[in-house]
Amino acid sequence: MRFVPFPVFPEQASTLSTRTDHLLYYLLGISGLMTVLIAGCILFFAIRYRRGPGNEHATQVAGSHRLELAWTAAPLVFFLVMYAWGADIYFWAYTPPKDALEITGIGKQWMWKFQHLSGQREINELHVPVGRAVKVLLASQDVIHSFYVPAFRVKQDAIPGRYSEVWFEATVPGRYHLFCAEYCGTLHSGMIGWVVAMEPSAFQEWLGGGPTMSPAQRGEKLFQDLGCNTCHRADALARCPELGGLFGRPVQLQNGQVVTGDEAYIRESILDPGAKVVAGYENIMPTFKGLVTEEGILDLIAYIRSLTPAEKAGP
Ligand code: CUA
Asked: What is the pLDDT of residue 272?
């Protein structure tokens, strides 16, 4: 356990927590200073210039431009520092490093479900290595939930119908509270768990003890179970776009628009195929809404992401 300057604060266990706390100390310091200054002036003037013998009538005092300039400029500098400092931390906190370890998380009434790229799945527990940036791609199966780890100073909503992401780098091994910070129904208060930060070697060992099927492998199986492969294929019988190499690539649509083949696009195309039809194809794909869970969609995305462009089969 590390030194905590104010015991009311949660412990600091991520690279973000120290940065956020330093800014907060600054905010508290400035606010405290201002409060003392203003309250002190009120008190001092109230006593010093109180009504009494020889002081029955107020005297008119002329303003001082220098004084006014000074008490405008000085706080402005302190407040602009808040802005610049806060903006710097904000952009840093919302820009996951490229090499971050990717994990998917799904909020549902009333639990957190996580899945690692190697296939390990867990409920209300999230194991992560220390000293490595971790990015959690969040989705919700039903209503808005919020992924909140006070010791890491991170909070991000999991919103139905779209993906959001949050990243952090744990610095101290240990078990940390995981909460849902958005009221999501009767058992909202029970939607809690633990983030377990482990030494990298222990984490690798932990990962090794899981199931052997990766999300991409599960996605491939689902792709066949749902019959996607009857239309999305690389040969002459293909009636739908070939999916190899789709991920991250620009996609030309029927209406002339160009979109990126990212998680959000693939998810929308599975649930609402008519929304963005690829140029040169007809809108013949049925919706898979209700037939595939959010977890299933993430598996399908992992599978599509793993595909490489196939050689076009000859006639
Ligand atoms: Cu989920 Cu509150």
From this structure: 87
Does the beta carbon of 122 lie inside 6 Å of ligand 1?
A: no
CA pair distance 304, 107, nearest whole angstrom = 23
For the record, the structure tokens of 46 come out as 């109230």
Picking from 117, 205, 207, 129, the residue whose alpha carbon sits closest to that of residue 168 is 129
Query: What are the pLDDT digits (tens) for 114-169?
Result: 988 877 889 999 999 999 999 999 999 999 999 999 999 999 999 998 999 999 99
> Residue 20 burial by CB count (10 A; 0-12/13-18/19+): exposed, middle or buried?
middle
pLDDT value at position 293?
82
Strands (E) across 150-282 are located at: 154-158, 164-169, 174-180, 193-198, 250-252, 258-260
Which of 51, 29, 33 has the alpha carbon at shortest distance from 41? 33
Ligand 1 centroid distance, CA of 307 (Å): 35
Which residue, chain included where needed, has tokens 């405290």?
Answer: 32
**Cα–Cα distance, 119 to 213 (Å, whole number):** 6
Ligand 1 nearest-atom number relative to CA 144? 1
- For the chain, helix (H) and strand (E) counts, in that order, are 6, 12
Q: Could you tell me which of 134, 133, 140, 135 has the C-alpha nearest to residue 112? A: 140
- For atom 1 of ligand 1, the residue with the nearest CA is 145
Q: Would you state the pLDDT for residue 210?
A: 62
Q: Quick check: CB of 71 below 6 Å from ligand 1? A: no
Residue 145 Cβ < 6 Å to ligand 1: yes
